[in-house]
Amino acid sequence: MSTSLVNVGGRAGLRRGDRVVDIASASGEQLSSDPMEILRHWNDFRSWAGGLSNDAPAATIDSSALGPPVTAPQKIFGVGLNYTDHAEEAKLELPKEPLIFTKFPNCLCGPRADVVLTSNRVDYEVELVVVIGERGRNIAEAKALDHVAGYCVGQDISDRRMQFAGKPPQFSMGKSVDTFGPIGPGIVPLDEIEDPNDLAISCDVSGETLQNARTSLMVFAVPELIAWLSRYCTLVPGDLIFTGTPAGVGSVRDPRRYLEAGDTITSSIEGLGTIVNRCVPGPG
Ligand code: ZN
Fold this sequence. Notes:
By secondary structure, this protein is of the alpha+beta class. It is 15% helix and 33% strand. It has helices spanning 23-26, 35-40, 42-51, 84-89, 160-163, 171-174, 222-230, and strands at 3-8, 11-16, 19-22, 59-60, 66-67, 76-80, 99-102, 108-109, 115-117, 122-123, 126-132, 148-155, 158-159, 181-189, 200-205, 208-214, 240-242, 264-269, 273-281. Strand 15 and strand 16 form a beta hairpin. The termini are far apart. The mean pLDDT is 96.
């Protein structure tokens, strides 16, 4: 049975199929109710979860109560132009080194949260999100996955109007608006995903499939990204890497397809599940 770490109304839960176990209660408060604390003690959590009996008290999962499985990361990295098909549609050269920007943690929201639109040029980007589970600096590529807790689905929502209003463009603000980082539905542990760079990835907006690719199209694969980032920044548990988006984003389609109030964004990755986010109008 597949398992994941979920955030149910702010409390860490172990999801098993369509049931969820409250981690703090079921462990007799040995483990924390805070999802960030679970990530900081990931190996303890994994060995406890592995030994948990099948009849541990569990509730039926209520998807509408799920929050972001990572609530307060120290860092969120985004990677620009990291899929060959997306660089091609944007008519830009493939980067020779990873193009990194930040998404500030205020943008995180849950797998069913509403995305609040700030202009008529807000765009979607489905992405594989890597969740760091073990601290490290100068991590070798061959050891990179040892530092991963697991993976989830993410949307790197962008306000293209703000992103490209001036020169140079300001990626970090345009991608950090509140609600511009839905993630979930839960963190699927590393060992349940054989190869993060061989997964189907797709995004539908209001029933129309607009992105449909595989993570094998990444320019810099997950281990390369971890090795590169950790040459400069110490990675710590809970850090997130939004690993880039495949072709089909709204701002380079012909005709363009920006998000509108009432749209539903459905983002899926093989083995990780689906997040569903409705677009609502922003203030003013
Ligand atoms: Zn992106």
